[in-house]
Amino acid sequence: MPPLDVEAILRGLSLQEKIALLSGVDNWHTKPIPRYGIPSIRVSDGPNGIRGTKMFNGSPAACLPCGTALAATWDTALIQRGGELQADEAVAKGVSVILGPTVNTQRSPLGGRGFESFSEDPVLSGAMAAATVAGIQSRGVSATIKHFVCNDQEHERMKQDSRVSQRALREIYALPFQIALRDAKPWALMTSYNRVNGVHASEDPYLLKEVLRGEWSFDGMVMSDWGGTYSTAEAIKAGLDLEMPGPSFMRGSLVNHAVACGKLHEDDIDACVRRILEFTDKLLPLGIPSNAPEQTVDTKETAALLRQVASASIVLLKNQNKVLPFAKEKSTCVIGPNAKIAAYSGGGSASLPPYYAVTPVDGIAAVSTGRVDHAVGCVADNKPALITNIIPQLSMAVYDAPPSNPARRKVDDMTIREANLYFYDYHPPLPSSHCGAWYIDFAGTLRPDATGEYLFSLSVAGTARLFVDGALVVDAATHQTPEGTFFGFGTGEIYGRVRLEKDKDYAVTVEWGSLATSPMQTHGAESMTGGGIRIGCARQLDVDEEIQRAVALARQADQVAVVAGLNADWESEGFDRGALGLPGAQNLLIRAVLAANHNTAVVLQSGTPVAMPWIAAAPAVLQAWYGGNETGRAIADVLFGDANPSAKLPLTFPARLEDTPAFLSFGAERGRTLYGEDVFVGYRFYEKAGRDVLFPFGHGLSYTEFAVDALCVDASEADDHLRVSLCVQNTGTRGGAYVAQVYVSQRQPSIARPVKELKGFGKVFLGPGERQTLTVPMSLKYATSFWDEQKKSWAMEKDTFDVFVGGSSADEKMLTSFFVVSETRWWNGL
Predict the structure, then answer these.
(1) Residue 401 exposed, middle or buried by CB count within 10 Å (0-12, 13-18, 19+)
(2) Which DSSP helix (H) or strand (E) runs through 638?
(3) Nearest alpha-carbon partner for 737 in 611, 647, 631
């Protein structure tokens, strides 16, 4: 396809055609104008995989580990390969634009989308974002860094005002975006839902014009988050090029009106259209047709890379008495609520149907040559597990009217294997004359494998009732309370109990009505979703009995893995976590198993920190995050030593929630969130306050040992470089990798600064006895500067700066040196 003559097209487009280009035509496509060779561009989530064009009943995909897991690798080369994999998947699904990576700073461990982001540190986040973008765009696909800026909580995310100092905004929250722009030049950027200091980010001329396009010289396209455009003239004037999704809500005829009354000039529209056309032109070499079919590329090579990334992300937090690695020939007991499920991803827009997902039990059983037993011990769900865990498939029939209407007509039917359904992009084949609600009947046969009380549950965006053998068990239609499910449009969980007999067949049916039937206030929801439903069912366990069973198995085993943690029900877009602790009886289970068998490793799956009140008794702990398709095999690789852990924590694990810097100010209060901790986020706060933590930022152990020496620091103000080199030797008997973390501290700053700050890092892989020199290059001005609010510039002060290099932020054997900045300078830009 020939390149677009942007200026010629701009001259030829009518005003109405220009306006049409300013918003999407549907959930995932931009507006085509065939007479000028302008195709419809397809976009797709997301941060850890390419879903394609369907949130409901979509095609399967390669799911990478979550953002925190990727950052835990501290391996930019590997993360770049992950970006390349995402791009290849995108092209196969006809996608030209990936809506990721997520680059927001993890201000609190409770943030619902914290697992999507990389780190609490802006330098690590920026480096991982740049590596991801470089990998994606090396294939000609566009990355979209998001969400600019201060989108780090789900509570009232569309209306809350992030009140943050200019210094913290620049040094902590905007810096990852700045680094990604400097190092990888992403072609697109997505604005956040929230306000920043009183103005919504999607219409803020300071953020979009002065900082992004002016100071940082960003020449790419800026799009809104889905439903995150709140004005017409203001957003266009600020430089929000593309409103998503379509059809337009804030543009279209409203732009006509703004032009007619003089609030907008055609030049304002031209500026946005020009960037959209230039962006489109960059994507033409892909040769993707407007309505390309979606294909999958589930190959051995894809699986191997996913496994490598997942294994490289697992952090060995503790390993007393060399409990790990396990011996393959010994008997192994795998216990815990996450053992027989694959917690491969968090929830929300990062979720997607995987090609496959390996559970920890299956991964361990495939590696072990000894006996492998399993016990659940307890559950970790905040609601019953999906009913499709025990009814593998449900029939789904779509109707134009409710069951009470005998003349209703079935318009669609299918079989589903997933009972958490969001009808964001499903449109039943109804005539154009039909308006309002539509309905679904779900049906399946349940044959319990044990007699007992079963808990059924529904959460809905819409209305629903669940019946067992014709008897009403759950009524999610009459009384509803909004609790943030389905991106803020859904109810909380509504329950019902019934006793069922083993091996007896029961007919389970659910009658569901679309969002238009909901009695709740769902302002604006009509443009975002047709509704949703989650159907849960689980046998009620006797916790004491299950723990006793797990303990009995643990006593008989040579070695035990307790796989615990969170899942997509706890960490998701749409809501924040309420507590730091593990849910349910997991702490009781872990304590009991640790007491029964001292050769026990605790494997935790979560995207953000969890409390560990049993840590003193645990000899070995792995942080395994959400590991994507290869979750189970990656855990087995590290447990049995086929992969030597080299990951490091990308965020601090606090001892208590009360110790966290945002404890008193996380969440919105009457529409505002005060960032009272200022620049002291994460380890910056803990070190400044002298606060003990569970595990420090950058911490991570190995099955081998390393020695470091010969630190050399070379700083040049003229060339703006800071080069730190050191010698690293593997002094152990296994091959492994060492991450050198470079921290910088100013001795006599004119303002309060953190004790030290990460400014660079490098990773080197060494065989037993091997020794190498590792060099970490950095920008001197980035390594030394703070944001001067009076000068509205970065300030690099005349002073002496100390350099600390080690294996974590709390390494007691850090190498130290210093350098001198001879003259104070102020600077702006990249």
Answers:
(1) middle
(2) helix 631-639
(3) 647
Write down the CATH number for the domain with range 305-381+542-653: 3.40.50.1700
Q: Which fold has domain 6-286?
A: TIM Barrel (3.20.20)
CA-based max dimension of the chain: 85
**For residue 830, how many other CB atoms are within 10 A of its CB?**
15
Q: Considering 75, 88, 121, 225, which one is annotated as catalytic?
A: 225
Query: Does 5 or 489 have the greater pLDDT score?
Result: 5
| Degrees to nearest 5, angle at CA 127 with 226 and 65 | 60
Residue by residue, DSSP assigns 574-631 as TB--S-SSPSTTHHHHHHHHHHH-SSEEEEEE-SS----TTGGG-SEEEE----GGGH
pLDDT for 338 equals 96
**In whole angstroms, how far apart are CA 656 and each of 52, 315, 665, 668, 683?**
40, 20, 16, 21, 14
Please list, in sequence order, all residues whose beta carbon lies within 8 angstroms of the beta carbon of residue 762, skipping any fewer than 6 positions away: 739, 740, 742, 774, 775, 776
CB 739 within 8 A of CB 648: yes
Two structure tokens written together for 794: 């970065």
Q: How many residues does the chain have?
A: 830
What is the CB-side half-sphere exposure of residue 645 using CA atoms within 13 A? 30
E-only strand ranges, 420-558: 420-422, 439-446, 452-461, 463-468, 471-476, 494-500, 506-513, 532-539
- What is the Cα–Cα distance from 126 to 179, expressed in whole angstroms? 5
Q: Identify the CA nearest to 731 among candidates 710, 712, 703, 711.
A: 703
CATH number of 706-827: 2.60.40.10
Q: Which two tokens stand for residue 406?
A: 């005998």
What is the spatial distance between Cα 4 and Cα 518, in angstroms, rounded to a whole number?
47
Q: Is 528 left (phi over 0), alpha (psi -120 to 50) or beta?
A: alpha
Query: SS3 of 655, please?
Result: coil
pLDDT score, position 522: 54
Return the closest-CA partner of residue 697 out of 771, 609, 637: 609
User: Percentage of residues in the chain with pLDDT exceeding 90?
Assistant: 90
Distances from the Cα of 730 to the Cα of 314, 440, 483, 648, 700, angstroms:
20, 61, 52, 17, 16
Please give the model's pTM, rounded to 2 decimal places: 0.95
End-to-end CA distance of the chain: 34
Q: What is the pLDDT of residues 345-384, one digit of tens each?
A: 999 889 889 999 999 999 999 999 999 999 999 988 778 8
In degrees and rounded to multiples of 5, residue 113 shows phi and psi of -105, 20
Cα-based distances in Å from 16 to 7, 33, 254, 259, 658: 17, 11, 12, 11, 55
List pLDDT tens digits, range 496-522: 999 999 999 999 999 999 999 988 865
* Angstrom distance (rounded) from CA 394 to CA 288: 35
Give the integer Cα–Cα distance in Å for 742 and 124.
Answer: 11
Calpha distance 128→301 (Å, rounded): 22
**Sequence ranges of the domains in the chain:** 6-286, 305-381+542-653, 387-539, 706-827
Percent of the chain with pLDDT over 70: 99
Residue tagged 């190995």 (tokens): 702
Could you give the CA distance from residue 666 to residue 675 in angstroms, rounded to a whole number? 8
What's the pLDDT score for residue 526? 47
Q: Is 241 among the residues known to form the active site?
A: no
User: What fold does the segment set 387-539 form as a domain?
Assistant: Jelly Rolls (2.60.120)
